[in-house]
Design brief:
The complex is a heterodimer. Chain A is α/β, with parallel strands linked by helices. Chain A contains twelve helices and eight strands. Helices cover about 40% and strands about 15% of the residues of chain A. The chains are: A alpha/beta, B alpha+beta. Bound molecules: adenosine-5'-diphosphate (ADP) and magnesium ion (MG).
Chain lengths: ~260, ~100
């Protein structure tokens, strides 16, 4: 039986879609069977980030409306064995899907896949409710900024209220140069504030932009730091104990690691 | 004890400003307390206290903040009020007020 994991954040533009694409691809690269579902209806993006935009026939709304079977809407990624995408509908709105329909879809997919990964839209309205309804785990993405962390806190509260208790944090777009100058919150600062465990830290990395330009997730680029961070997150999702990358060269991260792996919490 | 000064920041770096502002804003978010609620509370506290003391209304300040729990193990929301008293009322004044109110 597979796991259904929602990737969410509250705030837009913090890296949910980037994370979904990279974590999904990285999981497939380590031999897992993965289906990504883009639930950002009306603002379809995961298809272009993955470079699969030219192959869409059906979408998630067609599936829940039973206009097609789930595997007819699934685009099989020819580059990565075991990776599939169910795209969002572009010309419908969030109300075209209900939480019950999403739960039903996720329940049927987890019989067939190791991981069902759901790319959640921004906000806390219908789209969010749909995205989380079938999930038993959540990855909350934030950046080291006041507004993003505040929204992450709100999202964590809402996830808990919806009985999703397995919640892990991804700190995205960390800039080591700014952290060193004291001009950006570090991972410890964020963990002090949010009451969840950390599953990974992704540096701000130009490779994310160039790889997105090409539709080739950064995890396929051996040289990309962000790619390496996402590959590690994928391993941690499978239960492997991979230490958090030391991006900074100082002790803040060692403390953060201690915090996650037992000393506190 | 300077409750408010405590939150002004240890170092003058922008990340400390970010962290402290976040901690305060989250206390409000998590407690689900609206500014209207605080205004209502402020109004009623003023009303009660004004029977006994004269209060400088301009400087009266009440806010939600964070404090350590009794056993020091976690942070809890705390209501902190700064109420400058300009004059204590004499007992006969407030008993007069009381009577007026009863009528
Ligand atoms: N680690 C990163 N380094 C650099 N740019 C990033 C990183 N993560 C995301 N981005 C960029 O930020 C923008 C928003 O990311 P996206 O994944 O679409 O966010 P969301 O899905 O949360 O709205 C995109 O342009 C993306 O390329
Ligand atoms: Mg997105």
């Amino acid at each position: 039986m597979g796991e259904v994991i929602v990737i969410t954040s509250g705030k837009g533009g913090v890296g949910k879609t980037t994370t979904s694409a990279n974590v999904g691809t990285a999981l497939s690269l380590i031999g897992k069977k993965v289906v990504l579902i883009d639930t950002d209806i009306g603002l379809r993006n995961l298809d272009v980030v993955l470079g699969l935009e030219n192959r869409i026939v059906y979408d998630v709304v067609d599936v829940v409306e039973k206009k097609c079977r789930p595997n007819q809407a699934m685009i099989k990624d020819k580059r990565f064995d075991g990776l599939y995408l169910i795209p969002a509908a572009q010309t419908r709105d969030k109300n075209a899907v209900t939480p019950e329909q999403m739960r039903e879809l996720c329940d049927s997919l987890k019989n067939e896949f190791d991981y069902v990964i759901i790319d959640c839209p921004a906000g806390i309205e219908q789209g969010f409710k749909n995205a989380i309804s079938g999930a038993s785990k959540a990855l909350v993405v934030t950046t080291p900024e006041v507004s993003a962390v505040r929204d992450a806190d709100r999202i964590i509260g809402l996830l808990e209220a919806n009985e999703i208790r397995d919640i892990k944090l991804i700190v995205n777009r960390l800039r080591v140069d700014m952290v060193k100058k004291g001009d950006m919150m570090n991972v410890d600062d964020i963990l002090d504030i949010l009451a969840v465990g950390l599953i990974g830290v992704v540096p701000d990395d130009e490779d994310i932009i160039t790889s997105t330009n090409r539709g080739e997730p950064a995890v396929t680029n051996e040289k990309s730091k962000a790619g390496a961070a996402y590959r590690n997150i994928a391993k941690r999702i499978t239960g492997e104990d991979v230490p958090i990358m030391d991006l900074s060269g100082d002790n803040a991260f060692v403390a953060a690691i201690k915090k996650i792996f037992g000393v506190k919490q | 004890m300077d409750f408010f000064g405590f939150f002004k920041g240890k170092k003058d770096s922008s990340k400390n400003a970010a962290k402290e502002r976040l901690q305060l804003v989250l206390i409000h978010d998590r407690a689900n307390v609206s500014p209207e609620f605080l205004e209502m509370l402020k109004g009623e506290i003023l009303e009660v206290l004004s029977r006994y003391v004269e209060i400088n209304h301009e400087e009266f300040d009440i806010r939600l903040t964070r404090a350590k729990s009794e056993d020091g193990s976690r942070e809890v929301p705390a209501l902190v009020a700064n109420i400058p008293i300009s004059k204590m009322k004499r007992p006969e004044d407030f008993s007069a007020d009381r009577q007026r109110e009863c009528i």
